[in-house]
Design goal:
Blueprint (H helix, E strand, L loop, with lengths): L1 H27 L18
């Protein structure tokens, strides 16, 4: 019983650490947006 409890606690901490690392990596991601098309480029898409 005690061994099961210890293994469960270890699994919970591993999942928690991985979640925090994933979230912090996602917040560091630099999002970029495309430039708005200029007047001369608007008709070239068609």
């Amino acid at each position: 019983m005690f061994l099961t409890f210890i293994i469960s606690i270890i699994i919970v901490f591993v999942v928690l650490i991985l979640s925090v690392l994933t979230i912090s990596k996602a917040y560091k991601y630099k999002h970029t947006i495309d430039e708005l098309p200029t007047e001369e480029n608007k008709g070239s898409d068609m």
